[in-house]
Each structure stands twice: as structure tokens, then as C-alpha cells.
Amino acid sequence: MTEGARIALAVGAALALGFLVMACVTDQPWAAFRALVTGPLPSMERAADGRLVMHRLVRFGAWLQDATTLTLVGLAIAIPFRARQFSLGADGQLFMGALAAAALSLGLGDVPAAIALPLAFLAAAMAGAAWGLAAGLLKTRFEANEIVTTLMLNVVAVQVYRLIVGRVLNDPTAGFITTPPLPGAATLGPLIARTNVTAMVLVAPAAVAAVVFLLRRTTLGYEIDLAGANPWFAARAGVPVARATVLAFALGGAFAGLAGFHVSNALLKRLPVDLTPGMGLEGIVVALLARGRVAALPLAALGYAYLRVGAQAMERATDVPREVVLVIQALIILFVVSDRLAPLALGSLRRVWMRIGRTA
Amino acid sequence: MTVAPLAIALEDVEKRYPNGTLANSGVSFTVAAGEIHALVGENGAGKSTVMKMLYGLERPTAGALRIHGLLADFRHPGDAIAAGVGLVAQHLNLVPSLTVAENVVLGHEPRKPGGRLDRVAAAARVRELVGQSGLAVDPAATVASLPVGVRQRVEILKVLHRGARIILLDEPTAVLTPPETATLFATLRHLAAAGHTVLVITHKLDEVKALAGGVTVLCQGRVTGNARMADVNEGTLARLMVGRDLPPPPPRRPAGARLAPRVIARDLGYVDGDGAIRLRDVGFEVAPGEILGIAGVEGNGQDVLARLLSGAAVPTTGDARLDGRVFTGLSPRAARSLGVAVVTEDRLHDGAAPTLSIVDNLLATRYAQPPLSRRGLIDRGTARRWAEAVIAGFDVRATGPHQPIGALSGGNMQKLILAREIADAPAFLVASQPTRGVDIAAAAALHTRLVALRDQGAAILLISADLDELLVLSDRIAVLYRGRIVARFEAGAVDARTLGLHMTGLGPEPKGGDHD
């Protein structure tokens, strides 16, 4: 059975089960289901003058924006995972990246976009990489479990972020605790009107392509792969396992940092103190859905973002409570990552079928 | 008409694992009651799967198993034990801190009223079993104090205690010295004479010859040969096992003036993290074009010696030089850059990355240098062509250079590992157990390569538990026992029996100050 067919079957089964759950909690399960499945898509209408008009572009934009962030944080999980390191640190790296990009943008003030944008972009990547590097060094130098260190580094990063946004970069004229708006030259303009879909929507797949090339064609990528596949063998063969592991963390961190740049300089254009943590952890889901294959990350991110935005649409359009929406999301992920579920289900179906055939 | 009753019968047995791997297909063979039957074939040929099905650890996906004529549908080992089938696994499952008697009755204990273990009855039961089976073991001894050969006897007693009439043994000689092997064979013959049926996995031709009444050959999950020992001679048996005639053993190195040593190791010692002395006072010299064999029962310091010599561990004392330059105590990469290559003892653990492709496994030691990479970019085309050339040149059975190396049989994997290690014409090769678990045809091919490398002027340290291999290939042999070299021989002047005695610490004391 091909991977595509397996995933289609898993998603189909999860949606069917989700429909049953919805039927239990709402009088209008069909409407809710429709909102979930078609929510993120724009609708087209022919206006009075005969032109095609697109509606609901905001949601469509939200889908692409979400997918962009998710692809980048997915890389932050997937690259260390190639070295068999379970990094949970994308959140902290994203916060550090966002903070660095915003701080630099504000600090530069009125400079041309050609200077402000690349510098903010680089600052975000470097801040994320530094945060990843820390986890990598703790692992290779001191044998500190990376799951623990990345989670703790997340806590540190989020609190440092809140401290700096609240105390240093605070805009006293705003009605809430936030940085001032970033200078226009440092922010990215929309590619689709009324959305925040910016050039970052192209940067994310380009980043994925670059990482695929790195892993497949460079000696560093080979070292990361070998260190992950069998570190004892890699060491005996003379591969610098510790260096490869540290660099895998740092490289992953750089992309989470870029996700932070996306949040600060493309989506929000200013940083509120209560920026919600958790997007980095969603990156774990995306990396799991892509099953460690970097090239599959954009697809997994698109799929997962679609589900998130569809769920939001359902929540708004119907009386299905948010809790049920989250349950359905979780169900889909459970079904997709259960490797043997679809083959087993098909197998038992076949057996039942044969038994029926025999008794008939 | 009288026919010997069949103890084991497999009828068109198929085993397909849920992931799609077909481990056995159309396997049919029978073993008469009271027979010793050998199951031979390379690693991955499906021998162990047959054993697991007979012991209830796996269930066949098609076909039928019969035990003493009755259809056997074992769901777990308990069913198999109830049907009189017992398994002596390759890795022994004993509790080291308990006595022999306690280990034997563990799980089926004689109990006093109140449920407590009846030690007196347990010891009596074990003495009774010892008397019946001829397996000499002291019931009161603690298992931790026993050598491996005796522990294996305890395993057999355990199986007998549970009432087994059919005894399955998975590569029982892999961990034994020659004297221990001889004792095991005598025991098995005794058990067979007493009416037990023995099914034993091995891939050694001489063991089949010495022990078995019948033999079944498995290849890629199917039965490719089946014979009564009475009907075959050694030549036909070898053909049956290999599929073609074996090449003649490699020629001995022409005796000539010994050249100046290329590798000199002095006073090598290693104390591990727990403070245990794993190696001490090990010194040796290897000349160009010479193979020095290291004999020893596993766990007597061979692994440490190989790790020190390949840069994977830092010696506590002493060092080793290659062409005058110290190569120990640095790093694996530094040792390699000085001309050292390594075939590691456990190829799945640190000799290969089983999930990665053949190409990626070959690249591991050479990826950082031209022509395989330039300025950090790997030339995948060159790498693929090299892998294809190796597959063809070493006669590796694989579907192509991108097949995961873990999907290959042990012999094919080992050919690729050796190909990788000798690709840069190393000055010094440390080869640990280069043919362990490898079928005899592949072993012969590997031996030919080692000899060719020797003839090019490389110094080779051959660490092996296989005495036949050591005796055929080595120019000189040193015996490692409890971390020390206890004896040294010219290879032509020693036999397996003498080596075996020294390996178990039973040889005469080593001559003092002998550094050869």
C-alpha cells in the first residue's frame, strides 16, 4: 500500500469518527462538517458586473500563514531528529528569533528595507541558532538529556522575551503591553490583499529545498544522517558525531528563528507580551506527520494548517465547542501516525469479507 | 510396515511478518524421533524463524506444524513446553546470582506447603536430571561462577526439567571453545540415544558432519537441500550448503626472511570506568605482509584491544606505532588517517548503519575526501558507481546500491564492510571476528580478500573466536586470556586443541618476558 493511500485512509477514518463525535454534540452536524472541510478555502462568486470575486480570503490567508510558520518550526524539529535528537525547543527558538528580529528592526529605525529586512532576517536566524546550539552543546558536552534541556530553554526564552518586551521595548502609548509597531521598511508587505501572506510563504519551501540539498549532497548532511542512524558506527568510522549533532541543533534553531521573524515582521508587525507559546510544539506534530522526511514537511504543514483553520471556521460557524474541535484534530493525528492501523484494518476487512464469501 | 515415528514435521510452512517480510515459504521437512537434525543456512535464511515457530514465539501464516504427529498450533511458548518442546536460545537466559538448581526449576518449582521454594527437592530433581542426561553440573554452584559452556548445560537441564522431548538449539557452539563443543556434542548424542529429538542450528560444515543424522538447508526462507548424513560425503554436503564447490583454502604465505615490524604495540593496558582491568601488558609486533592471529574466548579483552587499536578508546598504559608513528590514544579519524582500518566485531552495532543504503554505508570512512566529495559537496554519482563496482567485484547479493544494508545477509554485509575498510589500501587492518555468522562461501571469499591485502604488504591483526580461521590464515597466533597474552605460537606449530587449552586458562604458564 502506498504511503499516500495509507494517509488518505487514515484521514478519512478520522474524519468519519469526527463526524460521529460532532453528531453527538450538535444539531447541525452537516453544517459543522462542511465548515471543517471547506473552511480554509476561498469562495468565488460572480459579481453583478460579471467579474469573479473571491470571498473569505482572510481564512485562506490564515491557512498559508499558518503553513509557513509550521513548515519552519517543522524543520527545527526534523533536522535534529535526523541526528536522532528529540528537540522540543522550537518554541524557545521561535521566541528568541522574533525578539531578535523585532529588537533589531526597532533599533535600526528609519533605514531602507534593503538593509532592515535582511538584517532582521539574519538576526532572527542567528538568535534561533544560538538557542539550538545551547541545547546541542549541553547534550554533547555534558550529556544533558535534550528533551529536558530544550523544554527548560523554552521556559527561559519565553520569560526573557516577556521581560524585554515588557520592560525594555515596551510602547507606553499602546493600551496593552507590546512593542511599538515595527518600522514599515522592516516589515513584509502582503502578496494577497487583506492577508498577511508575504514573501515568507516562498521562503519556507525554499528553506525546505535547501535542507534537502544539505542532507543529501553535503558532507555535513551525511554526517548528521550517519550520526543519527548509528552513532557508534559513525564514531568508529571517524565521523565527528558531536559536531554533527550540535550543528543539527543549531541549524534547526535557525529555522525556528525564521519562524519568529515571520511572526514578528510579517504577521504581527509588533510583538505583544502575551504572544502565545505552543507553535513550536505544533512543529513536532508536523514533523511527525512528515515522518522524518524533510521534503514532506510543506505538505504536512499545509495539511495540518488546513485542519487548524478549518477547525477555527467550524468553531465560529456552528455551536460545536472548541474542545470537540481539538479532539477531532488529535484524532486525525493519532490515525495518521498509527503506522499499522490502515494495513490492519484492511486485513481484517479482507478476512471478514472472505468469511462472508465462504458462508454464502 | 514400520516407519520411525516423526517427532517434528513441517508442512508447507510460510511465515510472513506484518511488515511484509517473507521469512519462510513452503518449508517442509521432518525429523524422526531420536534423531539429531541440523538446520543450516546463512544469516537471514529463516532458520531462527523456524525455531521460533516450533517454540510458539511466532505463528506460521500458512501450512502446518506437527509435533509427534499432532497438529501444533502454538500461541505462546507455554503451549510448546506443554507439547514437550524446549528451546536453548543463542543468548542464555539465566539468573547469574541464583544457583544452578534454582535456575533449573525457575518457573516450575517444587514447593513446600505454604508455597515456598523447596530447595532440597529442587536440588534432588537437578541431581536426578544430571544422572539421566549425563550433563555434569553441580546443582549448588552459583551460575555467575560458571563458564559459558557449563551455563549452557544448565539451560539444557532447564529444558529437560520442563519435560522436553524435543530440544531446539540455536547456534549452541557460537560461544564455546573446542573442548566445550566436544562435550556438548557428546551430551547431545547421549540425549538422542535416550530418545530425545534434537534440532540444532549451525553453519559449520564440520559440526554438521560430526553431529547430525540429517540435515536441512535453508536459503532465503526456502528449503534448498535435505539429506541423510549416511548418503552424502563432505563434498556433496558443502555443495548442498553453498550451492557450488568451495574454493580451496588460501595458500600459506611463502616463508621468507621476516621483515622489520610495521606495527609495534607495547605494554597496552586498559582500565575501564568501573576500575576493572580489561587489558594489561599486551605487546606484539606485526610485519608487513603478516597476519597475527589473536585467539581467545569472547570477553577476554579482544574487544578492548580492537577499540584501542582503532582509536575508539584511549589506552591506560602503553601505545602502538605504525611505521614509527603512535596511532593509539588519538581518535578514530586520526588513526584512520595514519593508515589504520577496522572491521569491528559486531557489524550491526558499530560496523554499519543498517537502515542506511549500501552507498551511504560505503561512504562512511571516505566521504570527506576526493573523489567522493569536494568542498563539502558529496559526488553522489561517483559514490553510486563505486558502490556498483564493489557490489559486482565482491559478488554481493543485493538489489542495488540504494538497498538498505540491513536487508542483506550477514555475509553480504560483511563483504561490503571489508570492501570499505580496504578501499584505501590500509597499512594496518584490525579485523575482529570478520566471518562470524557468515555462511561458508562468503567466509571463503572474505578470507581470500584478507590474504590479498596481506600480500600487498599490509599488516593484519586477526581477532577471531574461530580457531579454524585463525589456523588457516595466521602466520603467528597469540592467545588472549583475561586481558593478557598468555601464549604465542608459530601458526604451523600449534593445533586447535592446544589453543583451546590456553584459551580457557588451562595451558602451562606463559614463558616470562616473551615479547616475540
UniProtKB/TrEMBL annotation, chain A:
Cellular location of this protein? Answer: Cell membrane
**Principal location:** membrane
State the Pfam families in the record.
Answer: BPD_transp_2
Q: Which PROSITE patterns match?
A: PROKAR_LIPOPROTEIN (PS51257)
Provide the transmembrane region boundaries: 60-81, 93-109, 115-138, 197-215, 241-263, 284-306, 326-349
Tell me which InterPro entries the record gives.
ABC_transp_permease
Database matches in CDD domains: TM_PBP1_transp_TpRbsC_like (cd06580)
Q: Does the keyword NAD apply?
A: no
What do the Gene Ontology cellular component annotations say? plasma membrane
Superkingdom to which the source organism belongs: Bacteria
Membrane topology type: Multi-pass membrane protein
Instruction: Cite the GO molecular-function annotations of the record.
Output: transmembrane transporter activity
Keywords from UniProt, A to Z, are: Cell membrane, Membrane, Sugar transport, Transmembrane, Transmembrane helix, Transport
Protein's recorded name: Simple sugar transport system permease protein
Species whose genome carries this gene: Nitrospirillum iridis
TrEMBL record, chain B:
Looking up InterPro entries in the UniProt record yields: AAA+_ATPase (IPR003593), ABC_carbohydrate_import_ATPase (IPR050107), ABC_transporter-like_ATP-bd (IPR003439), ABC_transporter-like_CS (IPR017871), P-loop_NTPase (IPR027417)
The UniProt GO MF terms for this protein read: ATP binding; ATP hydrolysis activity
Alphabetized UniProt keyword annotations: ATP-binding, Nucleotide-binding, Sugar transport, Transport
Q: Which residues form the ABC transporter domain?
A: 8-245, 263-507
Q: Which SUPFAM superfamilies match?
A: P-loop containing nucleoside triphosphate hydrolases
SMART domains according to UniProt: AAA
Which Pfam families does the record associate with it?
Answer: ABC_tran (PF00005)
Q: Which domain of life is it from?
A: Bacteria
Q: Does the keyword rRNA-binding apply?
A: no
* Record-linked PANTHER family: CARBOHYDRATE TRANSPORT ATP-BINDING PROTEIN MG119-RELATED (PTHR43790), GUANOSINE IMPORT ATP-BINDING PROTEIN NUPO (PTHR43790:SF4)
According to UniProt, the name of this protein is: Simple sugar transport system ATP-binding protein
Task: Identify the taxonomic lineage of the organism of origin.
Answer: Bacteria, Pseudomonadati, Pseudomonadota, Alphaproteobacteria, Rhodospirillales
